[in-house]
User: What shape does this take?
Amino acid sequence: MDKKNTLGFVFVFISMLLSLVNTFSVKITGAVIGIDIKSSFLIILTIAFFLVGFIFLSRIGKGLVALVLTGTTIAGISHKIHSDREKQYITDIKITAPYWTNQGKFQRTYRWDSILDEVEEKYKLPKGLLKGLAMRESYGDPLRLNSGKDGGAGLFMFQPRIARHYGLKVHGKSNNSSKDIEHGKELKNLIKKYKNNYEKLAKIDERFDIEKSAEAAAKYLKEDYSKYGSWDKTLSAYNQGTPAPNSKDTEHVKAVREYQKYYNKRDKH
Assistant: This one.
């Protein structure tokens, strides 16, 4: 903790002590309606110490605000979304449901609703399709890594080769389109190194960038739709490279479609 933060805590602590002293004094003197000069002076002094302490601690305050707004974790480590672009989308969105539940996935994804709306409209995707895909792939968590540690990352769980193909900057040298355990370890260490700082990580690997990854995912879906002529086949191809014969009955497609319905039902816009 640096000197400014220490001073901030000291001033706030003193203001709390002064407040207690003043409260105790009022109770002893019985000054319920009127406040004497001594009490007024203590109130002014309390406010002054508190404000000075708050100024010193303002940087910590900003971090706490970001933490409350994002309300999301990876393995118990809190994300801190610092980007001004993202802040305008996460205001008033609080995560109250458990991470793995439908509601939890919805709440996390809903933080990026305005971004995803813009991208869906731009590429003429069915309403909620991109959002349902994000709920399925990453639980709406932009810093999530594939649970299989295979190198997939971000809101739409792009593998390195596919990400590069759609213009995203990728950390490291991997150019795999399938399992790459070493790359998965690299990403895990990268997130640990930067302590889940979204702003820094999104610049190092654009799969973590909400806007850029959403744009890439939309291009991917639109391109496959032009080949297959079916959104179910497109979703199936997104998951396994080529569409399954019974695409609409596959686990992945059914899950995305369910999330799409769930999201649209709760979407306020």
In short: Confidence is low (pLDDT under 50) at residues 25-38, 59-91. The two ends are 43 Å apart (CA to CA).
